[in-house]
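Fold Annotation — chain and its backbone

Fields — amino acid sequence, structure tokens

___
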Amino acid sequence: MVRNLVKLVLCLCVLFGYPVTVFAQNLGSSKGESTLGVGIGLPYGGLGMKMSVNPADQFTLFAGGGYNLVGFGTNFGAQYIFPSKKRTEFLVTGMYGYNTVVVFEGSDYRNYSFNGPSAGLGFRVNSARNEGAFWDFGLLVPFRSQAYKNYSQTLKNSSGIEYNDPWPVLFFFGRNFPLSASSPKQRSLP
């Protein structure tokens, strides 16, 4: 399943990566722009914030940090935003950082956070009133680490412990605000 998802993402990148003319590129996906977001999900470190910068048009690097139910969670990653004349833009995302937490009720010493890569698809809805601001929404597939798999197997084999497997697909959403002020550009992307 994971290989099929990777193949799908690569095919979409190749399919949509060819030259596209954009007449009114959204400011939030323009080169040199940066944003600060507040949201829920892995890109935001759980419940937290995300700082993004665009080193190139349609390409975003980000770092997120927040509360992940057992402590401070972080993620670092990249997004490719597919060019669009509309307010809504499709995106693919990949990141590394925490992607699994194990929480015990009434027993903090056994709570753990595990790191690993995650990848997914989503979209952003650009604000009509606040140039450069947007909402982003998406689904992510976390690739669980071997350390997590070993720990979960130990818990499953323990008597007296009720263990629920984590969701195989996670969601994220957040509101992002521009930190840099530029004017929108009219151009053709290579």
In short: Helices lie at 2-16, 146-157. The chain has one domain: 34-175. Strands lie at 20-22, 34-41, 46-56, 59-67, 72-81, 88-102, 112-126, 134-142, 170-178, 187-189. The CA atoms of residues 87 and 128 lie 8 Å apart.
